[in-house]
Design a protein that fits this description.
Elements (H helix, E strand, L loop, with lengths): L1 E2 L8 H6 L19 E2 L11 H20 L6 E4 L15 H11 L3 E4 L24
Parallel strand pairs: 1-2, 3-4
Pyridoxal-5'-phosphate binds next to loops.
Length: about 140
């Protein structure tokens, strides 16, 4: 599982996990199937307003997993705690903990891609610390 606006790299699998074709994936592929993309809580552009972004986006993401994929079929949920190449998007507070809680409850590995946020770039060792979440 990956998220709208996500960027995860330039190998074949991580390009498949990356949202934008232009410029990151142009001329590459085909990519691995069975990578599913769900909404992220993008407060600035959330249609019903920033205050609703965390709860509504988490509910939509979880609903898509439950209804379209099946939690038991998900190997891992991968997300950047702050999205970089997607437009420097900080998910609305509460979104990441809701996703982590769902992953825990369903035995899904939660991976934080901290390539752009780790090692004190956001003020703490890892951006996950901001919301008290622990990738496992
Ligand atoms: C969020 C994120 N994930 C993963 C990567 C790894 O990318 P690459 O495959 O180019 O090493 C990067 C590189 O900038 C990144 O910003």
């Amino acid at each position: 599982m990956v998220f709208d606006h996500g960027y995860h790299g330039r190998t074949n699998l991580t390009m498949g996990m990356t949202a934008k074709n232009m410029p990151y994936k142009q001329g590459f592929g085909p990519f691995a199937p069975e990578v599913y993309r769900v909404p992220v809580a993008y407060p600035y552009r959330w249609l019903t307003g920033a205050d609703n972004a965390a709860t509504e986006a988490a509910a939509q993401a979880i609903d898509m997993i439950n209804k379209q994929i099946g939690a038991e079929n998900v190997a891992a949920i991968v997300i950047e705690p702050i999205q970089g190449e997607g437009g420097f998007i900080e998910p609305a507070k509460g979104f990441l903990p809701a996703i982590v809680e769902y992953a825990r409850a369903n035995g899904i590995v939660f991976v934080a891609d901290e390539i752009q946020t780790g090692f004190c770039r956001t003020g703490q060792w890892f951006a996950c610390e901001d919301e008290g979440i622990v990738p496992t």
